[in-house]
Design brief:
The complex is a heterodimer.
Chain A (H helix, E strand, L loop, with lengths): L8 E10 L2 E11 L4 E5 L6 H8 L7 E6 L2 E2 L2 E4 L2 E4 L2 H8 L2 E4 L11 H13 L3 H14 L15 H13 L5 E5 L7 H16 L3 E5 L3 H7 L2 E6 L2 E6 L1 H6 L4 H10 L1
Parallel strand pairs in A: 3-10, 3-11, 8-9, 9-10
Antiparallel strand pairs in A: 1-2, 1-4, 4-5, 6-7, 11-12
Chain B lengths: L4 H5 L16 H23 L5 H7 L3 H32 L4 H16 L2 H9 L7 E5 L3 H8 L6 E6 H4 L2 H27 L2 H9 L4 H31 L12 H12 L2 H30 L9 H15 L1
Antiparallel strand pairs in B: 1-2
Classes of the chains: A alpha/beta, B mainly alpha.
Keywords (chain B): Amino-acid transport, Cell membrane, Membrane, Transmembrane, Transmembrane helix, Transport
InterPro entries (chain B): AA_ABC_transptr_permease_3TM (IPR010065), ArtM/GltK/GlnP/TcyL/YhdX-like (IPR043429), MetI-like (IPR000515), MetI-like_sf (IPR035906)
Protein name (chain B): Amino acid ABC transporter membrane protein, PAAT family
């Protein structure tokens, strides 16, 4: 079978182990186009691992995962799964933007070079065109003055905003955020969340692993609570946050809220 | 105005500047004196010992043959290093391959070539002409296969005469580059492994291929770690060109200077000339290393001096108000 054409992300029984430790124990999840899904849960619950499975940074051991109707990392032919070649995996990833907890900007390139690198090198966009678009994107995240700065000349919040611009430069259909504000000083969290809020309002499909309950409540269309490798509870963020049904959700929220 | 004046001056008077008696360091003065005396004795020896023959040395250390030798030494150093670095990158990438055969082959190469003294390797390569007179490349085991099929034929693409290739400059370059590749492989591997794995992950997430990630993201950052030990290697290589005597390559610098010394029985002046030549050439290479290091430290703080950074921070604070 192929993935439901209507869903941007569709996971069925996704499992993943590292050695003998099973980190994901059968995840089912659906993300509609334009939807913002926030994933919360205690550390070690598998939420980051699940996010990394969506763009095949981690290989899944069982289950199926589709992005925009295409199986991630595999091709199904004659009832058998075939691993995709590196080149094909890379092509799939072009449509999926990812923002990391530790920013992972390229330190030997300026902000603009970071943003321009993939469109020019991977998509073959003309350099002048990519630069114009890069400056536009950096202005959009409020860094029009900082295009020629190296990452180590930027604050954490500024670096994370460059990282968001870098991911957007590939014009992805889906954006994955892996705890984008967890490594930031508290006073810098707001500027990054503001950019993400603007992105959500522009209609981007987003999966956000986060500890920012306020963001999840105000921006998220749905909230997923994961614990110990399974989805414990999912639904409308306001409902889940104010009236959690499952005792594990209740216990977690009572600690963080 | 008059009412405000007492407010601004009401702050307590600034504390008095400290004018403490500094700690004395008599040991440093004694050490400096001892060093000064030793230096004076050294200069005195250079100036008074007639064996040095400074005039003779100056007259003979820039003859056309010596200058040609210096050129050979420099060209050999650069060529052997370029080949060695390229070979080292290939071996380092092989060594990090998930395929155990590929990684094992690289390990074996490094093990073998690091174990052999360069002078032994150079001597061996210079005599490869004795192993086979002619070296040919083509289909492996072609003659055996043709025999099996009942034909009298072979399948060779090209070949060369061992006694023509494994002599002089080519043999020397081959030996030094092969040996250098093994050392550079370990240096490059350390450099690649020093780069945060998150960098490759970010590149992959952007849809970059493995090759492009290595070329554009990982290697440029690894260069920061690779360059300083490579500078050491280059200096060592410059000096190891004197081992070319084992091939033999006689146009090389040290051989030329010693030849003059032996011919004229002025051993010490020409040995000193050799020292001075290698000092000068090494200094030249160090200048090159300085600029390379500067180039590859972009984005790692060295591009911005402390004063510049302080000025920028001050400007930032000002603009936020």
């Amino acid at each position: 079978m192929t993935g439901d054409g209507a869903a941007m992300v569709r996971a069925e029984g996704v499992r993943k182990s590292f050695g003998h430790v099973e980190v994901l124990k059968g995840i089912d999840l659906e993300v509609a186009p334009g939807e913002v899904v926030c994933v919360i849960g205690p550390s070690g619950s598998g939420k980051s691992t699940f996010l990394r499975c969506i763009n095949h940074l981690e290989k899944i051991d069982a289950g199926r995962l589709w992005v925009d109707g295409h199986l991630v990392g595999y091709r199904e032919r004659g009832g058998k799964l075939h691993e995709l070649r590196d080149r094909e995996v890379a092509a799939q990833r072009r449509d999926i933007g990812m923002v990391f907890q530790r920013f992972n900007l390229f330190p030997h390139m300026t902000a603009l070079e970071n943003v321009v690198e993939a469109p020019v090198g991977v998509k073959g966009v003309r350099r002048e065109e990519a630069r114009a678009r890069g400056v536009e994107l950096l202005e959009r995240v409020g860094l029009g003055e900082r295009v020629h700065n190296y990452p180590n000349q930027l604050s954490g919040g500024q670096q994370q905003r460059v990282a968001i611009a870098r991911a957007l430069a590939m014009e992805p259909k889906l954006m994955l955020f892996d705890e984008p504000t967890s490594a930031l000083d508290p006073e810098l969290v707001g500027e990054v969340l503001d950019v993400m809020r603007g992105l959500a309002e522009s209609g981007m499909t987003m999966v956000v692993v986060t500890h920012e309950m306020g963001f999840a409540r105000e921006v998220g269309d749905s909230l997923v609570f994961m614990d110990d490798g399974v989805v414990v509870e999912a639904g409308d963020p306001r409902r889940v946050l104010t009236d959690p049904q499952h005792p594990r959700t209740q216990a977690f929220l009572s600690k963080v809220l | 105005m008059a009412a405000e004046a007492p407010d601004t001056t009401a702050r307590p008077a600034p504390p008095e500047q400290i004018r403490a008696v500094p700690v004395r360091h008599p040991g440093r003065w004694v050490a400096a004196a001892v060093i000064a005396v030793l230096a004076a004795m050294f200069v005195h020896m250079l100036a008074t010992n007639p064996v040095f023959q400074w005039d003779f040395m100056l007259d003979n250390m820039f003859t056309p043959a010596v200058l040609r030798g210096a050129r050979t030494t420099l060209v050999m150093t650069v060529a052997a290093m370029v080949l060695g670095v390229l070979l080292g990158i290939v071996l380092a990438v092989m060594r990090l391959s998930p395929n155990p055969v590929v990684s094992g082959a690289a390990w074996t190469y490094i093990w073998f070539f690091r174990a052999i003294p360069r002078i032994v390797l150079l001597f061996f390569i210079a005599n490869l002409g004795a192993l086979y007179a002619r070296y040919e490349f083509g289909f492996p085991f072609d003659r055996q296969l043709m025999d099996l099929l009942g034909f009298q034929a072979d399948w060779r693409l090209f070949g060369f005469d061992g006694n023509e290739i494994f002599v002089g400059f080519t043999a020397g370059l081959l030996g030094l580059a092969l040996s250098e590749g093994a050392y550079m492989a370990e240096i490059v591997r350390a450099g690649i492994q020093s780069v945060d794995p998150g960098q490759a992950e970010a590149a992959h997430a952007l849809g970059m291929s493995r090759g492009r990630t290595m070329r554009r993201i990982v290697l440029p950052q690894a260069m920061r770690v690779i360059i300083p030990p490579t500078g050491n290697e280059t200096i060592a290589m410059l000096k190891d060109t004197s081992l070319l005597i084992a091939v033999p390559v006689t146009t090389e610098l040290n051989f030329q200077l010693r030849a003059i010394g032996s011919r004229t029985f002025q051993i010490i002046p020409m040995a000193v000339a050799s020292i001075l030549w290698y000092l000068a050439l090494t200094s030249l290479l160090m200048i090159g290393q300085y600029f390379l290091e500067k180039r590859f430290s972009r984005g790692f703080g060295a591009t911005e001096t402390r004063a510049q950074r302080a000025a920028r921070r001050a400007a930032d604070v000002g603009s936020q108000k």
